[in-house]
Amino acid sequence: HLSRWTALPRARADGWGSPETWAQDAVRWFSEHHHDPLATDCRRMLKQLGAPVPRRGRGISQVPQRLLELGVTSREVDVLLLIAMRLPNADIADRLVLSPRTVERHVSSLLTKTGLADRRELALFAERLGLA
């Protein structure tokens, strides 16, 4: 999968091979083997190809019991971890291969579920939970 991943940009540019199929296979393999940066890069390539981008279905983060009780999803935990790093929505969207609007929805949902007022409080909350 790694060799095809490295060949994807050239195959795409020169019109040879099956870059869409290779990228879809690579996303699955890299995700299953916890190589998240490579899986993210393959999702980005699929998006550039105009191909369907496989959804993770759920985030990659484990949800602590306290957050499970609040109804927080693993994708929202993915967002919360990046909020704790003080990243803006555009950077979070880029890292998770989401639209900025989707990130806004996740942030809004986190604020509602936790009863917190703003991103700063979310970041502090994540730190208190030992997520940051």
TrEMBL record:
Pfam families: GerE. It comes from the Bacteria. Keywords: DNA-binding, Transcription, Transcription regulation. InterPro entries: Sig_transdc_resp-reg_C-effctor, Tscrpt_reg_LuxR_C, WH-like_DNA-bd_sf. GO terms for molecular function: DNA binding. SUPFAM superfamilies: C-terminal effector domain of the bipartite response regulators. One of its GO terms (biological process) is regulation of DNA-templated transcription. Gene3D superfamilies: Winged helix-like DNA-binding domain superfamily/Winged helix DNA-binding domain (1.10.10.10). Residues 63-130 form the HTH luxR-type domain. PANTHER family: DNA-BINDING TRANSCRIPTIONAL ACTIVATOR DEVR_DOSR. This is Putative two-component response regulator. It comes from Gordonia rhizosphera NBRC 16068.
